[in-house]
Specification:
Shape: globular
Number of helices: 0
Order of helices and strands: EEEEEEEEEEEEEEEEE
Number of strands: 17
Distance between the termini: 40 Å
């Protein structure tokens, strides 16, 4: 199964999307959206740089982006950088979102990042906006905002000992990092592997909206959980 994404403004894929977002349920990592080992139905992908030639599919040798249900969760081997989300994954009020991401050998791509985004609005349009919380294999995290084609830094790359990195001493084929974002009335708290690494004021942060995953260039990850808890 292949999907060739066609757009002159943005790059987005919507698989099995009916337009009835309210009728859709949040994706469950234990139940494939569609068939296991195929591209998830109902999910959308938007890349940072549009291209009419990018193929998103379930054949790793012939796809620019390999994105499939792989229970529990989803597997992504990225090409271009972008965001991955299901329109039913929305937030309101105070909430916490969390993801479990297994990160595979990056080779020489230690500076390519992955993690969560939240507060997504107009994600199909040029005036897209969202915030994101990423880590990379240098043992650092980042918090930024995207507005259209521009980005602004809320917290620049900062080292955190709690980040699990893939290195010569890594046992097994991957390392696991658990990222969470807790949005409260006055602050937003960021945790990595259950340790607080940052807190910022929630003032002037528009946190309500769609949440999902952000995966940068040419890295290999498995997402075993992606969840929200309303508080």
């Amino acid at each position: 199964m292949k999907y060739i994404v066609q757009s002159v403004i943005i790059l987005m894929i919507s698989i099995g999307y009916t337009g009835e977002v309210a009728a859709q349920e949040r994706p469950n990592p234990n139940i494939p959206q569609g068939n296991n080992m195929e591209v998830p139905e109902g999910w959308e992908v938007r890349l940072d740089k549009p291209s009419q030639e990018v193929i998103i599919g379930d054949q790793p040798d012939s796809s620019d982006i390999y994105f499939v249900n792989m229970t529990p969760g989803w597997h992504i081997t990225s090409g271009p950088a972008g965001i991955y989300y299901h329109p039913a994954n929305t937030t309101e009020g105070n909430f916490s979102i969390q993801t479990e991401i297994h990160f595979f050998d990056p080779g020489d791509r230690n500076r390519e990042a992955y993690g969560l985004f939240w507060g997504g609005k107009n994600l199909q349009d040029p005036e897209q906006s969202y915030y994101y919380f990423l880590i990379r294999n240098t043992g650092e995290y980042l918090i930024k905002k995207r507005s259209g084609e521009s980005t602004s830094v809320l917290k620049n790359w900062t080292a955190a000992d709690t980040i699990q990195v893939f290195d010569a001493e890594t046992e097994g084929s991957s390392v696991l990092n658990v990222l969470s974002i807790s949005v409260q009335d006055e602050q937003i708290v960021f945790e990595i592997n259950e340790e607080k690494v940052e807190a910022i004021s929630s003032e002037e942060i528009e946190s309500q909206g769609i949440f999902g995953l952000r995966v940068n260039h040419s890295i290999n990850v498995h997402i075993s959980d992606l969840a929200v808890i309303s508080e």
